[in-house]
Design brief:
The protein has helices spanning 13-17, 23-46, 65-74, 103-125, 135-144, 159-164, 193-211, 224-240, 245-250, 254-269, 271-281, 297-305, 310-313, 322-325, 342-359, 377-383, 386-406, 428-445, 468-486, 510-513, 520-525, 539-550, 565-578, 586-598, 621-631, and strands at 3-11, 50-53, 91-97, 148-153, 366-374, 410-415, 418-424, 455-463, 491-498, 501-509, 603-605, 611-613. The protein is α+β, with helices and mostly antiparallel strands. The strands form three sheets. Strands 6-7-5-8-9-10 form a six-stranded mixed sheet, with helices on both faces.
C-alpha cells in the first residue's frame, strides 16, 4: 500500500500554555494541548496510519498512557484513574495511506475542543450569560477561532516550517476590555469597565458564586479560552472521559513549592509548634485551601515520623511567608470581607518568626522553573534512522517523571524531547544535570553519537509572587536566545528573576558544570561559610570582589587590559587574602581563585566542536549565582 508522510502541528503553544496565573492553569493548558494532539494522532491510527515520531502507538509493548486512555474511551471503557501528565507533543510525523485526508485530524481536534468548551459553558456560563452583554457571541468567536493547525505532506521535515511561515490565518478583531490572563482576548462580560463597572462586576460576581471555592479570584475577568483552562478540571469527566480534578487540586502554589524543603525541616525539628501554628492559622479565610504534602517525598517521610504536623504541611503556601501574613488583602474572602483582625495576623507573624528561629533558617521565597528541549532535532532526523531517534526520545520521556519526583519537582509536561517542570530551589540544578544525562544515555542506547544528540536547558529562579506568565516567557527566551543561540546549544542557561526583573544570567556548556554527582556548583556551594567549617568563602568577600572589579570590566563584560589568567588569579588571590578573617597562604589562595575563575569566564561551543573560552571575558554573574543559591534567595 502506498504511503505518505504527514507532518502535523497544533498551536499556539506559548499563547495557550504560558499565559497562566495559577500553576493549575499552567498544567491545564499543557494537558489540553497534549490531549487534542492525541485526538489527531488517534485519527491517524484509526485510518491504518502509524506514527513515525513520536512512536507512541497503543499496539506497542509500552504505549503512551494518554494515547492508550484515548483509545479506551473511544471503545466505550470507563476510566477511573486516567493519565494526568501531558506526554504527547503538539507536533508529530506519521505515515498515512495515500488516500488519507489530513482534514480528518483537524476535525478531530476541533470537535474535541468544542466538547471541552461546551462542558464549561453548560455547567457554568449558561446560567450567568444573561448578566453579560453578548457573552454568547464572545464565547463562540474565541472558541471557534483560537487554534492554529498546520499540516503538510512530504518527506522533507522542514516542509511544516515552510507552511507555518505562510501566516495565512487572520484572527477577528477583539474589542472591549481585555482578559486579565490573555491580554489579546476580550473578557466575557462584554462591558466596558470605565463606563459600566457595576454591570461588569455583577457578571463576574454571579460567575464566582456559580463556580464556588477559589476557582475564580476577586478581580479576575477572563476570556473564554482562559476560563476553559481554569475550569477544565471540573468538567474533565464529562469532556474527556476521566476525572483529573484530584490531580488539579494537588498542584501546589508557587509559594508552597518554594517552601517545601523548609516545611520538611520544621516538621522534623518542632512538630508540636507546627501543629499549634496550623491550629491558629486555620482562622484565616484562605488558609483552609489545603495543599497536598503527599506529592513530595520529603514531606511524606517527615509526616510519617511526625503525623501531628499534617495540618501544618497542608496549609496554603502563603501562610509560610511573613510578607504574605502582613498583607491584609491576601486574606479577604471573595465577598471582600476582611475576615480576620490585624491582631491575629500579628500573632501568626510572631509564631512564624519563632519557627524560623528554631529551624535556623527562613523559607526561601524562590522556586525554579526548568525548561529543556532537544537540539537540532530536524538535523538529527536527517542523519539517523527516524525509528531510532523516536525510540530514544520515548525512552527519555518515560524516565522524566520519576526523575522529577525524586528531585521534589512537579512535572508540567514531558513529551518527546521537551520537558517543563517546577522544582524547589535546592534541587533544580541537580535535576537539570540528571535529565541531561538521561537524554544522553537514551540516545547512546539507540546508537546515536552523544555529540549529535544534545539537549539544552533554561532554569529560572523566580520569586513566588512573580506572575507565572512572565516566568514562562522568560524561560523560552533564555532557552532559545541564550542557551541555544548565544552559547551554541548543549548548554544550560540560568537566570534569577526578582520583582525588578532579571538580576543575573549565567550560561555555560554542560561540560563546564560537570555531572549530577560531581559538579562545579556543588563544589563552590560546599565552600561557603554556611556550608563549610573551613570558611573558604563568605559573602563579604564576594561583595568586595564585585565592587572592586566592576570598575575594570567594560559594558560587554570584558576586561579591557590584556591580562593573562595567571595575572587575574593573582589579583583575585590578593583580594581574597585581604579579608582579615582569613589566614590563607598564597598557594592556597591562588588555588581557590583558579577554581572560582572558572565560573567567571564565558564559554560557548566552537563551530568545529569543543568548548571554547571567550578570551578577556569576565562576568560576576556566576559568582552571584553561587551567592544566591547559598543564601537561598534570603538576604542575610
Amino acid at each position: 500500500m502506498e504511503e505518505k508522510l504527514l507532518h502535523f502541528s497544533l498551536g499556539p503553544v506559548q499563547d495557550f500554555v504560558a499565559q497562566a496565573r495559577k500553576t493549575r492553569d499552567f498544567w491545564a493548558g499543557s494537558f489540553i494541548l497534549s490531549y487534542l494532539s492525541g485526538k489527531a494522532i488517534l485519527e491517524i491510527l484509526n485510518n491504518k496510519g502509524w506514527l513515525v515520531m513520536p512512536q507512541v502507538e497503543v499496539q506497542r509493548d509500552n504505549p503512551d498512557d494518554l494515547l492508550a486512555a484515548l483509545q479506551r474511551v473511544e471503545q466505550g471503557e470507563s476510566i477511573i484513574n486516567g493519565p494526568v501528565v501531558p506526554t504527547l507533543p503538539n507536533r508529530f510525523m506519521a505515515k498515512v495511506p495515500a488516500g488519507f485526508d489530513p482534514r480528518l485530524c483537524v476535525e478531530a481536534v476541533e470537535k474535541s475542543w468544542r466538547k471541552i468548551a461546551g462542558a464549561v459553558w453548560q455547567n457554568y456560563l449558561s446560567a450567568v450569560a444573561d448578566y453579560g452583554r453578548d457573552t454568547s457571541q464572545i464565547w463562540k468567536r474565541q472558541v471557534n477561532n483560537f487554534w492554529e493547525i498546520a499540516w503538510v505532506i512530504g518527506e522533507d521535515s522542514a516542509l511544516l516550517d515552510y507552511r507555518k511561515n505562510w501566516r495565512s490565518r487572520v484572527l477577528p478583531m477583539e474589542p472591549g476590555d481585555k482578559c486579565s490572563l490573555m491580554g489579546n482576548l476580550q473578557e466575557l462580560s462584554g462591558f466596558i469597565r470605565s463606563k459600566e463597572r457595576e454591570k461588569q462586576d455583577a457578571f463576574w460576581s454571579a460567575l464566582r458564586e456559580k463556580v464556588c471555592g477559589h476557582e475564580l479570584e476577586e478581580g479576575e475577568r477572563l476570556s473564554a479560552v482562559a476560563l476553559i483552562k481554569r475550569l477544565f478540571s471540573l468538567v474533565a469527566q464529562e469532556a474527556i472521559g476521566w476525572s483529573v480534578i484530584k490531580e488539579a487540586q494537588r498542584y501546589p502554589s508557587t509559594a508552597y513549592l518554594a517552601a517545601v524543603n523548609w516545611l520538611s525541616r520544621v516538621i522534623k525539628t518542632c512538630p508540636e509548634e507546627a501543629r499549634q501554628y496550623a491550629a491558629r492559622t486555620s482562622r484565616l479565610p484562605k488558609a483552609q485551601h489545603q495543599e497536598d504534602p503527599d506529592r513530595f517525598q520529603s514531606l511524606q517521610d517527615a509526616l510519617q515520623q511526625q503525623p501531628v504536623a499534617r495540618e501544618f504541611a497542608s496549609l496554603n503556601g502563603d501562610c509560610f511567608f511573613d510578607a504574605c501574613l502582613a498583607n491584609p488583602n491576601l486574606w479577604r474572602d471573595n465577598k471582600g470581607c476582611a475576615g480576620v483582625e490585624e491582631e491575629l495576623r500579628r500573632e501568626l507573624r510572631e509564631k512564624l518568626r519563632s519557627l524560623v528561629k528554631k529551624t535556623g533558617e527562613a523559607p526561601t521565597p524562590f522556586y525554579a522553573l526548568l525548561l529543556m528541549d532537544g537540539d537540532l532535532m530536524g538535523a538529527l532526523l536527517r542523519r539517523h534512522n527516524r525509528e531510532k531517534v523516536s525510540s530514544a526520545l520515548n525512552s527519555f520521556s518515560s524516565k522524566v517523571p520519576e526523575a522529577v519526583r525524586r528531585h521534589e519537582g512537579v512535572l508540567v509536561y514531558a513529551g518527546g524531547d521537551d520537558v517543563l517542570a517546577m522544582v524547589p530551589l535546592e534541587t533544580a540544578i541537580p535535576l537539570a544535570l540528571t535529565l541531561r544525562e538521561i537524554y544522553e544515555a537514551s540516545f547512546h542506547h539507540a546508537q546515536v553519537p552523544a555529540e549529535q544528540a544534545t539537549i539544552s536547558g533554561a532554569l529560572i529562579y523566580a520569586h513566588y509572587n512573580t506572575p507565572l506568565t512572565g516566568v514562562i516567557r522568560e524561560a523560552h527566551y533564555l532557552l532559545d536566545e541564550i542557551a541555544k543561540e548565544k552559547t551554541g546549544r548543549n548548554s544550560l542557561a540560568v537566570t534569577v528573576w526578582k520583582g525588578v526583573g532579571r538580576v543575573l544570567t549565567w550560561a555555560v556548556p554542560w561540560p563546564i558544570i560537570g555531572s549530577s554527582q560531581h559538579n562545579l556548583i556543588n563544589e563552590l556551594l560546599s565552600s561557603f561559610s554556611s556550608y563549610s567549617k573551613e570558611k573558604e568563602y563568605n559573602f563579604t568577600f564576594f561583595y568586595n570582589m564585585r565592587q572592586r572589579l566592576a570598575i575594570l570590566i567594560d559594558e560587554e563584560g570584558n576586561i579591557p587590559l590584556e591580562w593573562t589568567d595567571e595575572e587575574l588569579i593573582d589579583i583575585l588571590a590578593a583580594e581574597y587574602r585581604r579579608n582579615r578573617e582569613r589566614e590563607v597562604d598564597w598557594p592556597t589562595a591562588r588555588q581557590r581563585m583558579e577554581r572560582l575563575l572558572t565560573i567567571c569566564r564565558r564559554y560557548r561551543w566552537a563551530e568545529k566542536g569543543g568548548v571554547q573560552k571567550e578570551e578577556r571575558s569576565f562576568s560576576l554573574d556566576g559568582v552571584m549565582l553561587i551567592k544566591f543559591l547559598a543564601q537561598k534567595g534570603v538576604e542575610l
